[in-house]
């Protein structure tokens, strides 16, 4: 028996074309896009209904585990007592508000995540992310510190920021369930949470490709 080794040549290291389907180093691309669309739409519905975004989501959820991470993130964030308005963009007409808050939640591969984000305007008219709280549940957490580290690292990757804010993590351990790991799921709720916070502070909802350019790095 003989074997043949084919030399494929040097790898292609050229820059991606920047198209909407370009993967690059970012993970969970399809799920992130789906979560962004859904969670921003839910936020819009909450606004039209005159409802609190967290309470509105909880009223729609039939997944107890996703509801649990949503409540946990909101509690740690201090959602109902925070000085930042959430889902009340009518206030923006009076000028830049001091800050705004947004929330988003999602599930993927047996994991649940909810993220609250706070944004503040600076003197130059840009918005910076100043606080992030993520609640996460992936069944049994075999190594809590490793899970928390991966959540924080994934958040920094999703922000693509040189100086990200401190990421507060609430880990919901479910030893009665098999471990589903961490991987890419912590990234999926960040972009819609930030977009919803921008909406709360300005009354304008950025499209997926426009959210990042508004954030000061």
Topology readout:
Layout: H1 29-49, H2 53-60, H3 64-77, E1 100-108, E2 111-121, E3 127-137, H4 144-159, E4 167-171, H5 190-202, H6 208-211
Parallel strand pairs: 3-4
Antiparallel strand pairs: 1-2, 2-3
Helix pairs in contact: 1-5
**SSE order, one letter for each helix or strand:** HHHEEEHEHH
Q: Describe the main β-sheet briefly.
A: 4 strands, mixed
CATH topology: Aldehyde Oxidoreductase, domain 4
Q: By helix and strand content, what is the structural category?
A: alpha+beta
Number of strands: 4
Task: Compute the CA-based radius of gyration.
Answer: 19 Å
Distance between the termini: 58 Å
- What's the shape? globular
In spatial order, strands of the major sheet run 1-2-3-4
CATH class: Alpha Beta
Mean pLDDT: 78
**Assigned CATH architecture:** 2-Layer Sandwich
**Total discrete domains:** 1
User: Count the helices. How many?
Assistant: 6
- Which parts are unreliable, with pLDDT below 50 for 5 consecutive residues or more? 1-25, 90-96, 210-217
Gist?
This protein is an alpha+beta fold.
Structure notes:
By secondary structure, this protein is an alpha+beta fold. The chain has a single domain (29-204), classed as 2-Layer Sandwich (Aldehyde Oxidoreductase, domain 4). It contains six helices and four strands, in the order H-H-H-E-E-E-H-E-H-H. The chain has a four-stranded mixed beta sheet with strand order 1-2-3-4. Strand 3, helix 4 (144-159) and strand 4 form a beta-alpha-beta unit. Helix 1 packs parallel to helix 5 (190-202). It is globular and about 45 Å long. The N and C termini lie far apart (58 Å). Mean pLDDT is 78; it is low at 1-25, 90-96 and 210-217.
């Amino acid at each position: 028996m003989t074997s043949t080794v084919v030399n494929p040549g040097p790898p292609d290291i050229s820059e991606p074309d920047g198209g909407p389907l370009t993967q690059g180093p970012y993970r969970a691309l399809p799920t992130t896009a789906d979560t962004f669309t859904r969670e921003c739409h839910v936020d819009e519905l909450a606004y039209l209904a005159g409802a609190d975004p967290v309470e509105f989501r909880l009223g729609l959820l039939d997944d107890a585990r996703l509801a649990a991470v949503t409540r946990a993130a909101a509690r740690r964030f201090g959602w109902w007592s925070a000085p930042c308005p959430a889902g009340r963009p009518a206030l923006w007409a009076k000028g830049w508000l001091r800050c705004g808050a947004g929330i988003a939640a999602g599930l993927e591969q047996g994991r649940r995540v909810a993220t609250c984000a706070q944004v503040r305007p600076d003197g130059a008219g840009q918005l910076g992310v100043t606080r992030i709280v993520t609640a996460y549940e992936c069944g049994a957490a075999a190594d809590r510190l490793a899970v928390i580290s991966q959540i924080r690292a994934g958040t920094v990757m999703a922000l693509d920021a040189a100086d990200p804010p401190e990421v507060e993590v609430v880990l919901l351990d479910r030893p009665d369930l098999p471990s589903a790991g961490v991987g890419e799921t912590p990234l999926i709720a960040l972009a819609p949470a930030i977009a919803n916070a921008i909406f709360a502070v300005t009354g304008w909802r950025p499209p997926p490709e426009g959210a990042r350019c508004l954030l000061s790095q």
